[in-house]
Amino acid sequence: MLSATATELKKSLDFSGRTGRRPYLCFLTVSIVFYAVALALAFSLASERHALWVFLAVTAVFYIPVTSAGVRRLHDIGERGVLMLDPLKPAFAGLLLVWLLPLVTGGAFLATWIVGALLFPAAIIIVVFAALFGMTVATLVYLSNTMGLLLLPSEPGPNKYGPNPNEVSQ
Question: CA quadruple 69, 154, 81, 29: dihedral positive or negative?
């Protein structure tokens, strides 16, 4: 397990080639454990004011190696590595919508939300929670599809991303 993790860690910035299912799952397991420990340690040392920045920094450190291993794993089954970004689509769509709506509608968007918040606060809360719920469901759908792909067996023989890591003599 540790040798697979060390091998995958050495390839942290390499988004090409293939990674077998077992080394990927070993690396993912160790990464999740270390991520949880790093977050706990970081939160215990950071002030409450900086909690969001601590979370983002620790997540950024772990995101690239885990994503590169996932990209290589997707290559192993013959899929494009960009599928690793699919679970982020709903969040990006929501942020884009929040950013673009005020630009497109001008002051009418902000005025509508202010009047709505004053006259119908429960309705505004329901709309916001419905949007967040929809984004969460869409994220889980994309995540389950991506995780399902990551768990498929290797494509036999070489593919356009390289030789099968299970068939290469090491």
Answer: negative
Using the predicted structure, report yes or no on whether residue 72 has a pLDDT greater than 90.
Answer: yes
Q: Whole-prediction pTM value?
A: 0.80
Positive or negative torsion for Cα 90, 91, 92, 97? positive
Report the pLDDT value the prediction gives residue 127, as an integer from 0 to 100: 82
pLDDT at 62 over 60: yes
Who contacts 90 (Cβ-Cβ below 8 Å, separation ≥6)?
134, 135, 136, 138, 139, 142
Q: Three-class SS of residue 162?
A: strand
28 closest CA partner among 56, 60, 63, 57:
63
Distance separating alpha carbons of residues 165 and 170, to the nearest angstrom: 9
* Backbone φ/ψ region at 157: left (φ over 0), alpha (ψ -120 to 50), beta: left
C-alpha 18/C-alpha 72 separation (Å) is 4
